[in-house]
Amino acid sequence: IEVDVSKPTIDLPEHLYGLFFEDINWAADGGLYAELVQNRSFEYFPVAENDPLGKKMVPLFAWEKIGGNPVELSVEETDPLNWNNKHYAKLKSAATAKVGVVNAGFDGIPLDQGASYRVSVFVRTRGWSGNGAITATLLDADGSECGTASLGEATGEWSKLEEEIVSSKTTDQAKLAISTEGSGVIDLDMISLFPKDTYKGRVNGLRKDLVEALADLHPKFLRFPGGCIAHGCGLDNAYRWKDTVGPVEERRPNWNRWGYHQTYGLGFFEYFQLCEDLGMTPLPVVPIGVSCGFTDPYEVVDIENLGEWIDDALDLIEFANGPADSEWGHVRAEMGHPEPFQLEFVCLGNEEHDTPEMRERFPRFVEAMRDRYPDIKIIGTSGLDPEIPIYDLMTREKVHSSDEHYYKDPSWFIAHQDRFDDFDRSKPKIFVGEYASRDKKQINAVAEAAYLTGIERNADLVDMTCYAPLFGRLGHCQWNPDLIYFNHREVVKTPSYHVQRMFASNKGDVYLANTVEVVDPQPQPTVSGTIGLGTWGTAAEFDEIRVNGRRVDPAGWQTARGRFAETAGVFAQTDTEARPAMATGTESYAGEEVTITLKARKVSGAEGFIIAFGGNDGSSWWF
Ligand code: AHR
């Protein structure tokens, strides 16, 4: 490697490597957010394409009744705990009986012997005969008790009862029961169970092992809360940050477009706090009044009503940075953080489609933000696939950077390492806010690493990058691959994770121009085997394929999968599928040094070529 220290160098930006967090694949509820009770507030509302549950509320999802026939369990909304959280469980018994509910957790509740858990419930009685004493019990899969706590007595008014409970067993399949004895009506809401051992021991906290896996990546920023969930599948599904702050029982939950339910227990305060804990610059994404263009319904806010959405974006800055006596700074202070969170960036929109509605609305957010908060840096959006021409709007609006996303196969990443070499430096910077190499051959991490070398070479232009998605809970992944897989106890760090960690934890201060000459240090052993040619794409044609100068006779090649054939002297790919890699004909060469020459006639739609060698000794190389 030759490094020319006299050449101008590029300062590698402080925030080059960070994280993108979205509640997909159970990343938040059932994941990072340490709540162990699923559907704690009886508001469960899953929506997803092909969702067997359909587009309707399932308020008793994950719950069962305790008590036989005399006990009725229903969900009501008359005189609720509050109007953001309007459903609650009503238990009614005409005769004295043990009544209650049992929650199955997220695939069971994991418990550790000797560990403490915080249990809480909002409860109210109506015409109750009995003392209203509420008991919390941890039950193992076979129904045996592994912990119990008396929570106190319910009264005729909603009140919160809470206690600590210690588990006598280690299990992954526990359930939580909340029960009492008597007759009449008893109402329950916000039934919650957290391990005491959350990250930093926080109440309403995060799973320690998962936060530690993030900390090990040395991330310098966090983009949150999405992704598609930020702009939503239709406007009522957009992520409105104000619904996610304040006391957890007063947050207004929402359905998750990935097919489950968002409690918003992990909300904007908790995201900012996580940023502070791990030294990450917060990059909150706010919707710009345009819903996700990929999903039905695609909706936009009427221009005359856009003010409320713009105010949300401005108020977010006050929530993060405003003094504790400002309207939204006060909410932050009440949540325990009077000091500002030092917000510097706001991301406007996620992966918006290039529509006239988007083009009309985006500049209004920019103008209002510049007017009120001129120091805030605006990150715009270029959409999915860098070909989407929305960068011109970002250029016109002079945003700090434009967020582009790509999920491609490894050949794309390898072939596009030079993507930024010729970008116009007078235009906005680039934020690679979501990317992942997707392929079944497990060379994703290598392709991502190769791509990152191209980014470091262009780090005067590309100032931030983050992989996506971050988390996938085993058995609940709507999207693969993910950077970190987990279940109740295990955290699996993928090869892509290690690439991220390697680059982030070894980031230099400057990039030095360099040339790399690959010298074969050892004489290569002679191996006999077969060579093959493959292409990705739909329209590759070659006039000639020569091996060691000899024109290949296609008759001697096996046309693997019948997708590569010669007609009238032209070797053509006959595969009509756009994606999968295509095997091709092969020839055997014994003990020869092999040179392959391709004369391409047409390569439109082809994303790359592969030349493969399979040695008879079991070795194989791909170029
Ligand atoms: O990362 C998964 C999804 O991919 C994100 O929600 C979206 O922004 C992108 O299309």
TrEMBL record:
Catalytic activity entry: Hydrolysis of terminal non-reducing alpha-L-arabinofuranoside residues in alpha-L-arabinosides
EC number: 3.2.1.55
Keywords: Glycoprotein, Hydrolase, Signal
Entry superkingdom: Bacteria
Leader sequence residues: none
Keyword Transferase appears in the UniProt entry: no
Transmembrane segments: none
Hydrolase listed as a keyword: yes
Protein family membership: Belongs to the glycosyl hydrolase 51 family.
Protein name per UniProt: non-reducing end alpha-L-arabinofuranosidase
Organism: Haloferula sargassicola
Residues of the full protein shown: 22 to 644 of 802
